[in-house]
Amino acid sequence: EAQVTQNPRYLITVTGKKLTVTCSQNMNHEYMSWYRQDPGLGLRQIYYSMNVEVTDKGDVPEGYKVSRKEKRNFPLILESPSPNQTSLYFCASSPTPSGGNQPQHFGDGTRLSIL
Amino acid sequence: ILNVEQSPQSLHVQEGDSTNFTCSFPSSNFYALHWYRWETAKSPEALFVMTLNGDEKKKGRISATLNTKEGYSYLYIKGSQPEDSATYLCAFVNNAGNMLTFGGGTRLMVKP
Question: What is the nearest CA distance from B108 to chain A, expressed in angstroms?
């Protein structure tokens, strides 16, 4: 089954403790992206990647890192999480390097709570 | 950060009613406009990707139109059903083609 898989689905952690949210897609998609969703603010793009070893900042990249060492994986790293990063996070992928002309396929989301 | 607005924020309709809502976006540097349907506790699902001014797309009872010159898109639902209850999101893509800017969504609730 074609899918985007995020792990973990839920995480409660404390300020400053490094964490990684994994994202994997099995559709051989070129483009991958991370979003956060906050009440009243809609989905905001954190980082995106058009291909292996190519990553770019979205609208809200501060406090996050990403890597794209393999086509299928695009982990989101919070080196020193803070409470303002408490949010619902979505990973998405689309077939072509330009993510804009094809629909995004979303994972099931990861709810992070940082105390 | 680009300004993408959706209206109304929420909408309550009766089963069988037809409804529509709006996505407004910058009229310059247009590349594409996406529509997604997002049910509670699930992930957003793509409805349409529209790229040409005057585009009209249809999927069952749902259709969308696009006006890139004036910077708006309409989403129409004909004969709303309770299963149409969801948040509908639009996303603007500028001519770099790589970043999506989402609107705040329209939450639709259809009463049986």
Answer: 15
